[in-house]
Amino acid sequence: MSKTILIVEDENILREIMKDYLLEEGYRVIEAADGKQAVSLFQEHEVDLILLDIMLPELDGWSVCRRIRRTSNVPIILLTARSDEDDTLLGFELGADDYVTKPYSPSILLARVKRLLESRHIREHDSDTLSSGGISIHFPSRTVSIDGTSSGLTHTEFEILAYLLKNKGIIISREQLITKIWGYDFAGDDRTVNSHIRNLRSKLGKHAKQIVTVVRSGYKFEDEL
Ligand code: CA
């Protein structure tokens, strides 16, 4: 089954180029030229990943991201026009998984798309589930339940939680997380990680404190006392 990618980009030439690359790689492609169209196409189709420009007519990329995150954890890669750190951080706060700065090379973009679409942890695990106290990860479905209730984690939040839980009791540095989750070529910094950890903790509710911040070192996951 080929995966479906929604490209949201108002510049026709850029959209066409991206579309050609994705089609060549065997993906199905749906296109939106403005933010409103993006939201409605997303509601009408099964979409596996979204490439989302920020500066868009009708509804900007931030608003599109916010609306989609109300109902879905679909992987979202932001396409930002400049390497503005504040833009990137806002994107992560809104639940985006990754970003690419324009002008980007198609091969880098494809690499990011592939990384988000593959579910590495399924292969890395002997058992289907991993739990600690009220938190339980089910790898085949990539779902997390908290006290028996399914919790909507984004792709990135899932990866971070799975990695910390797999390495329970071990301090994991922010650099390790960046390398593990986004890869070596990722330009994000510590604040990127902080932002995702903050989102993740808020979804863990009363179990948030199981992700312990170790000053100047990183994070570690601990069983509940
Ligand atoms: Ca634009």
TrEMBL record:
Residues 127-223 bind DNA. The modification 4-aspartylphosphate is found at residue 53. PROSITE patterns: OMPR_PHOB, RESPONSE_REGULATORY. Keywords: DNA-binding, Phosphoprotein, Transcription, Transcription regulation, Two-component regulatory system. Pfam families: Response_reg, Trans_reg_C. InterPro entries: CheY-like_superfamily, OmpR/PhoB-type_DNA-bd, Sig_transdc_resp-reg_receiver, WalR-like, WH-like_DNA-bd_sf. Residues 4-117 form the Response regulatory domain. It comes from the Bacteria. The keyword Metal-binding does not apply. This is Response regulator transcription factor. It comes from Paenibacillus tritici. Residues 127-223 form the OmpR/PhoB-type domain.
